[in-house]
Backbone:
């Protein structure tokens, strides 16, 4: 069980909605093709610099808007290690866990800057900022949900469960 | 520290002695509900054919074709047929069609029980909260997991306490409580939280009215809109044919709430949610300049027997304004029969109403009464988003059945109290 997530921070503000995460003009492309355009409205070079395992940190209400699963799928395809925000839109939260993207709520994201290296203890709900030598409390993801995420989400879990 | 209803119901469903707000737990689902929109046709059937083509419990999955009934196009007819055929092929014990919006049917057939967990593929599944049921909406992928395993994961919500005290003035309805609460808390103010409605006003409401309140909890972003079960709940369920023991789970008196709002029902007046947001709520009395072309009395929010009675009390012996069309859709076949027996449907039709089939069609802008560019509709339903009931250039106002009926008489948004206790 992976109980720790570590990566570099890419920092965003409040209300990063699903149209910013996965711009609707690319919705007809495959997730792979569309993921190149993730976040381009607020950070045009984001996907050029983002590396698998990196962590997105944002303010309030991350993922508001559409119930489309294309938004968390795009972030997962890019290899996002985790998204940390003050709080998430409910449908985005559920979609993300169900497609295998870990999310953490943390009230102290203002203290985190782009380029910081974070280490997240998922079961205990602690974020270690290794760059700044700080610690923040965050929501926990219990092992039984981390295993769902590591299986690749709900559909993959069901396939595994029924031997397909 | 005491526990909220949500914490207690979810602890039971998770098989644990206690859970806390913020915990994520796997819970057993008592009843799963799906429909002809997000049901078998979206991915579910396809995934099941590949993964495992058996429903976890044929008694616990309720399927209701309600959005596309009666179908307006061959495509809609195909979707209903697909849902019906799939239900039959999978041995679903409880398949219903054409008899009304799913949330009303779940309630009438006794599927919403206190202390249980219900998940449905429709956002207004929060309606079941009126019975003290942890009842909420989900998407089709989650429903796939539930149909195959009978379980899903839930983040135990914090609870917002909403207290209504005082007696509702005549002409003011539960729908006005619902709109006033949403106007105060805002469209995202309860995101991922439970809302629990309490207080003497709520306790004095009949189940029809409680359902109108829980139904719209999702319009504040809430996961559930709970009301403590009591003797009113039990009486409704016994009349619905429920014989089993009921688990009357309620919040402890020292339960912890994240926020508390207190309202005075005796000071409430008829309220209207204006385009294009459900929290854009104003008193009806301030909107007398707004001209309305269509009035809709129906839906899982405002088409129950008490709603039809309140409408008929205003419309009886009067005539709908010549520039207005009034559409009435009883929220179920049973309500249709009762309203017919009471003479309500005749009274409404004589006033000029068109009596229609029980359906989600009008409210969701799918069929049976869409509105044109530039037109305005006042509706007893639950959502007034841009283009909800037809053209993206149209306008939807949400109100109580009494306000809708009064508006039908004048052609402008009207406080219904001017028509009460007045000789025709």
Residues:
């Amino acid at each position: 069980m992976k109980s720790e997530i570590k990566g570099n921070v890419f920092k965003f503000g409040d209300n990063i909605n699903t149209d910013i995460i996965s711009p609707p003009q690319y919705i007809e492309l495959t997730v792979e093709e569309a993921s190149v355009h993730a976040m381009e409205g607020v950070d045009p070079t984001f996907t050029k610099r983002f590396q698998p395992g990196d962590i997105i940190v944002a303010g309030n209400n991350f993922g508001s808007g559409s119930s489309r699963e294309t938004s968390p799928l795009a972030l997962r395809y890019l290899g996002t290690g985790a998204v940390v925000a003050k709080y998430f839109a409910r449908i985005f939260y559920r979609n993300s866990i169900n497609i295998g993207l870990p999310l953490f709520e943390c009230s102290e994201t203002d203290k985190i800057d782009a380029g910081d290296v974070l280490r997240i203890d998922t079961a205990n709900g602690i974020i270690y900022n290794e760059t700044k030598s700080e610690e923040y409390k965050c929501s926990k993801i219990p092992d039984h949900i981390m295993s769902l995420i590591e299986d690749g989400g709900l559909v993959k879990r069901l396939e595994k469960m029924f031997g397909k | 520290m005491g526990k909220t209803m949500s914490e207690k119901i979810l602890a039971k469903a998770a098989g644990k002695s206690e859970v806390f707000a913020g915990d994520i737990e796997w819970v057993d689902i008592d009843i799963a509900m799906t429909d002809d929109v997000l049901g078998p046709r979206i991915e579910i059937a396809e995934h099941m054919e590949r993964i495992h083509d058996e429903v976890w419990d044929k008694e616990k999955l309720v399927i209701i074709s309600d959005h596309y009934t009666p179908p307006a196009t061959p495509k809609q007819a195909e979707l209903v047929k697909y849902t019906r055929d799939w239900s039959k092929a999978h041995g679903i014990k409880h398949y219903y069609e054409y008899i009304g919006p799913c949330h009303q049917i779940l309630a009438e057939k006794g599927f919403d029980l206190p202390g249980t967990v219900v998940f449905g593929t429709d956002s207004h599944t929060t309606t079941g909260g009126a019975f003290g049921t942890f009842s909420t909406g989900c998407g089709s992928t989650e429903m796939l997991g539930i149909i195959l395993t009978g379980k899903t994961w839930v983040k135990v919500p914090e609870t917002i306490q909403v207290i209504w005290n005082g007696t509702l003035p005549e002409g003011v309805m539960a729908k006005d409580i619902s709109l006033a609460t949403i106007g105060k808390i805002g469209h995202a103010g309860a995101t991922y939280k439970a809302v629990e409605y309490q207080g003497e006003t709520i306790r004095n409401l009949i189940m029809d009215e409680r359902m109108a309140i829980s139904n719209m909890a999702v319009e504040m972003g809430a996961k559930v809109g709970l009301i403590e079960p009591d003797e009113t709940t039990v009486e409704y369920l016994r009349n619905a044919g429920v014989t089993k023991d009921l688990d009357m789970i309620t919040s402890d008196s020292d339960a912890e709430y994240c926020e508390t709002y207190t309202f005075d029902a005796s000071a409430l007046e008829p309220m209207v949610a204006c385009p294009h947001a459900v929290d854009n709520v104003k008193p009806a009395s301030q909107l007398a300049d707004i001209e309305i072309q269509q009035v809709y009395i129906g839906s899982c929010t405002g088409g129950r027997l008490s709603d039809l009675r309140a409408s008929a009390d205003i419309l009886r012996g009067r005539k709908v304004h010549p520039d207005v069309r009034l559409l009435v859709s009883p929220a179920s076949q049973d309500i249709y029969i009762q309203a017919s027996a009471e003479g309500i449907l005749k009274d409404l039709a004589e006033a000029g109403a068109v009596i229609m089939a029980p359906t989600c069609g009008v409210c969701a802008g799918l069929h049976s009464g869409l509105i044109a560019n530039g037109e305005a509709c006042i509706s007893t339903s639950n959502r007034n988003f841009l283009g909800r009931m037809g053209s993206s250039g149209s306008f939807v106002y949400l109100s109580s059945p009494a306000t809708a009926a009064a508006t039908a008489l004048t052609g402008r948004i009207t406080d219904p109290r001017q028509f009460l206790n007045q000789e025709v």
User: Anything to note?
Assistant: The longest helix of chain B spans residues 74-89. The interface with chain A takes residues 22-24, 26, 47, 50-52, 138-139, 141-142, 144-145, 148-149, 153, 155, 188, 191-192, 221, 223 of chain B (CB under 8 Å). The mean pLDDT of chain B is 96. The radius of gyration of chain B is 21 Å.
